[in-house]
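Retro notes
What went well: the complex prediction finally ran end to end.
Inputs used:
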Amino acid sequence: MKTIRARLAVLVATAAVAPLMAYGVVSLQLLRSATNVSVTGEAETAAEHAAGEIDQYLDRNIDLLTAVASDLQYANLTQAQQEQVLRNNVTAFPAYSELTLFEAGGAAVASSRLLAPSLVLGPDRPIKDRPRVAPIQIDAALLPSTEISLFLDHAGPPVAYLIGRLSLEELWRVVDRVRVGGRGHAVLVDENGRLIAHGDPAMRSSVARGDPLAWHPLIHPKPGATLAGVERYVTPDHVEMLGVSRPVGARGWRIIVEQRAIEAFGLSTRLERFLVMTVLTGLALTLFIAIVWGRSFVRPLDALMRGTRSLAEGRLQERVEIAGGDEFTELGRAFNSMADRLVTLQADAVRQERQATFGRIAAGLVHDLAHPIQNIGNNCRLMLQLYEDPQYRQDFRRMIDREFPAIRRLLEDLRNLARPIPLERFPVDVARLLQETAERINPIAAQAGLAIAVTPPSSALAIEGDLFALGRVLQNLLQNALQATPPNGRIWLATRAVEGRAVLEVGDTGCGIAPERLPHVFDDYVTTKRRGLGLGLAISRRIVEQLGGTIAVTSEVGKGSVFTLSFPAIPALRLVQAAPAGAEDPKKERALPPVATEPVSRADVSRA
Amino acid sequence: MVRPFVCTALLCLLAACGPRGGTPSTATPGGPAPDVVRVAYSEPDAGPNDNRGLDVIVGLLSDERLVGLSRDGRPEPRLAERWDVSPDGLTWRFALRRGLTFQNGQPITSAEARAAIGIDPSTPANQTQPGLRDLVAVETPTPDEIVVRLKRPNAFLLEGLNLSPLTGSNESGAGPFRLDAQTPGKASLVRFDRYFRGRSAVAGVSIARYPSAREAWSSLMRGDADVLYEVTPEAFEFVKESPTTHIASYLRPYVIALTFNMAHPTLGQRAVRRALNLAIDRALVIDTVAGGRGVPAADPIWPNHWARDRAAPGFAFDPQAAQAALDQAGLRKKGGTGLSSRFSFTCLVQADPRFERLALLIQRQLLGIDVDMKLEAVPMSSFRTRVASGRYDAFLGEMAASSGLGFTYLWWHSTPPSMIRTGYAGADAALDRIRSARTDAGLRSAVHDLQRRLHEDPPAVFLYWAQMSRAVSRRFVVPAGDDVDIIRSVDRWTIGGSSGAVSP
């Protein structure tokens, strides 16, 4: 039963559960992998695009300044004209808040400002054809700007340098336009890691404060670590972020596109949950179906098993109920038909056995009664003729004494079989029991040319039992031995104490019992003799077992048999106490059964 | 507290009237109470002890007047709950609300109101207000009643009263907040519990000056301030996107104009002034200088004024027509090519970075019709003096307008005294009609006439009305409303939550 269930479980596990789980695991891995690639790719694309745009923004403004420089060179302009050019360009290009021309000594020559120019020519100066972009400045308002300076070699002395202040607020707009997902934004830092722009409006104050974002792993990698391009990290606000970093041109600036991990992987997470739920639902459904279907397999088998077990235990009335209309139903019907047939067969068998038993009893009765009655009849007829003959009358009496006890014993067996005599329990002296039984049987044995040898126990041995019943058992066994043992053979009664039990042994050197019949010698109506109902040993076993003992037989054909009886021993002291009472026991006179005086005819002994 | 006429004069100052200028000062240190509003403003050109801008803000919070002026120029009751005027328009009776006190506990009576109006109509202060020029007497028959007698009807009287805050002893005001302490660049005000509109939920206001608009903005972003008094155009979109602040914008009642001196031989010609009006692309100016937040100006009359003719013609950008007009006026380009021009003039520009780019842009646009406008940047003090004395060809600046018509009269009527001397008298008749109008119909007709006149004979190139934006921390809930100056409604703010106010 367990095996079938286990097999079904293995079948479901291998055919459905394992593939489904494998599918789920593989799908999850693929989904995560694909999402990682997709999300990171989107951020990388946005970062690269923004980096390019910022680079272009700066390049474009450098080009603008270069174009202004071109307007100023080779034209031999007056200072007023130079100022006009500068002002026109400041007006045209709002990203430049100021344009100022300087002489080599550092003095301002012309400026777009109506007021005094605020730009100053510092020590770091550009060289020809190499514009210089100053580091990002956080001005008095804590906002970023930079200065782009150009060397002018043909603007006419004393002009030597053109510097433009480029507002980076436009750069903020570029950074602001970078959006990844719902709240993904960009962060722009300069070569020193200083925050230039932040796409998160809530972080604008960080730009205003000039926060260095020292915690940011994509800006300031941990000691020993290299600057990564992609990183997952946790902000000081305990928000997990996915960040992608890309350089902006060759300026050393970096743009970082970052997005909340929960948002970046939101769709993936939802899909993962959906997938897990689907797989779990599939698993649950599979298991449910497997259980339901498995039970539909196992339940009929269980029913059949129960039915079979009931039949085996003799409950032939049990039937199985298997619904479903499938093969199991057919099997159930077949089982029930088989059980019906068994009932019929059993009834037939009982009836035949009863008939056989009746026949055997009848035959036994006819056989056992025919001889005495024949003897009695013959002798009665002779008595009419020889009544006066004293010898005959004596023979007649012997014949009566022999045949009537035999008839009586036969009837006693039948009565015991039908209504067993209630047993009584008294302490019994085993040695005495054996001795008295031997004395009773010895005259009969002597007629058969045999003698019963008694081997008493080495010490007093007592059991609790019914003296009459025990005597009956021993007489049965001894009479069987007499019938089985040829003249000059040996019959013995022996007893010993073995581990708190009293063991009684009745042995003979007779013909023995065939091995195949040995297991059945204690069954009812089983006999190895031509005469008798086959009830002696069966009755003996019942008596022994009723007294709490056991009886067993060992036999070898041609060598003889030994019947061994074993009873719980009781202290011999109880014999002493019970002896006086036992002496006056009113039942003492039936302590031992009567013994048939008819000589045992060896012709009646037949051992199969 | 400044006297009303001083405040009026300040408001009249070109461009500098706003809270700008001053030496660097730091924001109020330490964390204030959550129910205190911290205002950050910038005044780049103010001196160390110059509190002009601060006074304006303090005045907005602590002053109260007899009469208010709505956004469409209609008068509305304030401390005076009602008034009536005699049929001849010469006698006005005002009834004060009962039980009112100044912030020092002094009862507000007609005597204080009389003092606020000014007894002598000939004082220079009153002369700067057209509405108060015609006073004959101010009587106080009862403590709750004021009678104003005029020598001639004056439609600007109520507007004049709107510009005259009432003050008690020790300069104590009657507004929603009482000035508690003031140092150069800083002021703190506390709630006035008996304010006539009720006790404010805001316990106080602290004001701090910053040396630049950017620093003021930074203070807001750092959380050191709750209100950025003025959001500059370049900062607008960044502040707007901030999750911690919201922006409330309104049209500032100041017109930005390039004003001409009629004494200039060329600019004195009506055809030339009309041609210059056609040469200016106002939309481009607004986009470039004001970040697109402004309304083109056709004349100096408040765009939302109820009496305004909204269908009145303006000046479209038409440089070809401008050049043709100049050609017709005989102002042709001299000498073919190069940097030669039809004519040139010098424009005064005050030394304020705000006007630099505007001046350059106007210069460039005029250069487009071969008119050479030279620029002369001068400090504010010099600017005022030269404008008032007429020593200029043209000047570029911001001119107060309010939502009424009094300032229009003040600037463009030829009768002195005026803060500017233009020599322009082309609109005198129309302006006089407005002054003497006693009915809505009469006023409307007169305003339409003025608009027409200013279009036919413009004294200036009226460029645009700038939109002003103020940023407020979302710590405060500001009453929703379009096109209103939220700084005037601090007493109705509540604390916590998000504001219903939105930026346009």
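What we learned: Chain A is about 50% helix and 20% strand.
What to try next: split runs per interface for comparison.
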